[in-house]
Amino acid sequence: MADPVLTSDRSSDPAPLDPASRTICHVCQKQFSQYTCPRCNSRYCSLQCYKSHSVRCTESFMRENVVEELQHVQPHDKTKRKMLDILKRLHSEEEEEEEDSMDEDGVDSLSEETIRNILSGDQISFDDLSAEERKRFQRALASGELSKMIEPWDPWWFKPSARKIRLGQEGNQLVQPINEESSSQSLEDGEESSSSNEIPPGPEAPLPPIRKLSSTEPSPLLPVHLVDIIYSYCFTLRLYNGDWRSDPIGSSMVVLSISLVLGHGGQPETVLEALSHCLEQTCSPAYKHAGGLRFGIALVDDTVSILSLGTDALICLLCDLQRLLQGAEKEMRLEKGRMPRRAEIKSQLKLARRKVYFMMCWAHEQPDEVWSSLAALVRAEKDIAVAHGESKRYAKSAEKPEGTGKVLIEEIQ
Q1: Using N-to-C axis directions, what is the helix angle for 78-101 and 131-143, rounded to 10°?
Q2: Are 88 and 114 in contact, with CB atoms under 8 Å apart?
Q3: How far apart are CA 402 and CA 368, in angstroms?
Q4: Which of 27, 233, 251, 351 is disulfide-compatible with 49, CB 3.0–4.6 A?
Q5: pLDDT digits (tens, 9 = 90+) for 268-313
Q6: Does the keyword Zinc apply (predicted)?
Q7: CA 358/CA 187 separation, integer angstroms
Q8: Rounded Cα–Cα distance for residues 39 and 28 (Å)
Q9: Which helix (H) or strand (E) segment is 387 a member of?
């Protein structure tokens, strides 16, 4: 795309090196002009003079160029589109602030180089920003302004294709033939070509029988533990708007902090105890900004919905959680800087990944009737939690066998 700011009109000048035939910049009145505004035909000598010659011209130019660039962004290039939206918003807001305050320091929200990269359609990362641009970005992030530009994620377990998940008899992902004609038509229409783009894939290799992983009988508490794991997975994906790959280590830390089973070495014995711990973490100061109890209740609904989908959907979920933990382990191996409690976190991730794989193999051998009964039990406990929330009463303690009487949810707002 041609940038009017950087497009010289020297080709029309009969003698570009002859000062007598050149025009002085209409803005600074100091330098010879080399460029012409495409809107008002004002002559200017630099990008700075262009920006200051007319706010109406510059704002209109920025808006139209960004819109044009976004129209050329491919549907699959979501990262570039998000960053362009964010930087455009920051630029516009900063220009408005400068116009109101009549700031004379000449500092723009975005540097000349950054603007040029945006207008050329290049992908911009946080590291590409200047120190001043990073400060403005972080202020917008802390104020919540950036969240307004993020399109809410639609969980895969609510999609119609989630009810059509089919894995092989040994729990591995089936190879599905693609209808080339229907696939190309879907792509032309801007639709996803297959459910594989919506649903996390299952295991690539067959799942071994549970007896090969352990010589003892599986614990009868595994259904309760599964509720804890499903909740922590749903919490993390909703917190990261469905994109845990943007920060595998951070998302894995969220999983470990929410899950009593994976992150705290706990073994809840009842669904109430499992949900109580998850809701306590959800309403804690660390995550209360996510929505508090209302958000937690929605996550319980997510858990019920996933259980209602059956065995194959559960395996896909657990497989995606395993990939999440593996991604964190890989990123930690590549991390060169020092990380507090590095050895401890690596050990936690490894143990959690093994638990998830064991749970996946166990779930593969369970009939769907197990999940429907478990979903009904979770739904019943959710109704109790909702009743407590509406009355703004203290939640009851999830009693332990030893009678510790520890209150897992101190107060429900």
Answers
A1: 100
A2: no
A3: 33
A4: 27
A5: 999 999 999 999 999 999 887 888 888 999 999 999 999 999 999 9
A6: yes
A7: 38
A8: 19
A9: helix 368-391
Distance, CA of 215 to chain centre: 40
d(CA 345, CA 281): 19
- 221, 266 in Cβ contact below 8 A? no
Residue with tokens 């639709």: 191
Pairwise CA distance, residues 406 & 108, whole Å: 55
What is the C-alpha separation between 212 and 209, in angstroms, rounded? 6
β-sheet bridge partners, residue 167: 173
At 304-322, the pLDDT tens digits run 999 999 999 999 999 999 9
* C-beta separation of 362 from 211 below 8 A: no
Which alpha helices (DSSP H) does 160-270 contain, by range?
Answer: 180-188, 222-239, 248-258, 260-263
Residue 381 has pLDDT above 80, yes or no: yes
CA proximity to 394, closest of 403, 378, 380, 405: 405
Look at the block and give the residue holding tokens 């990380």: 339
In three-state secondary structure terms, 249 is helix
Q: Which domains does the chain have, with CATH numbers?
A: 1-53 (3.30.60), 74-149 (no CATH), 156-391 (no CATH)
**Which helix (DSSP H) or strand (DSSP E) does residue 43 occupy?**
strand 43-44
3-state secondary structure of 44: strand
pLDDT 10s digits, 150-167: 678 899 999 999 999 999
Contact by Cβ (8 Å): 61, 39: yes
Which pTM was predicted?
Answer: 0.61
Rounded distance between C-alpha atoms, residue 124 and residue 8, angstroms: 26
Report d(CA 4, CA 62) in Å as an integer.
11
- Residues 84 and 91: their CA atoms lie apart, in Å, by 10
Name every residue whose Cβ is closer than 8 Å to that of residue 158 and which is 6 or more positions away in sequence.
305
Burial class (CB in 10 A: 0-12, 13-18, 19+), 402: exposed
| 8-state DSSP, 401 | T
If DSSP states are collapsed to H, E and C, what string results for 303-339? HHHHHHHCHHHHHHHHHHHHHHHHHHHHHHHHCCCCC
Q: Which residues contact 250 (CB under 8 A, 6 or more apart)?
A: 240
Q: Is the dihedral of CA 303, 307, 311, 313 positive or negative?
A: negative
Torsion sign across C-alpha atoms 203, 206, 208, 209: positive
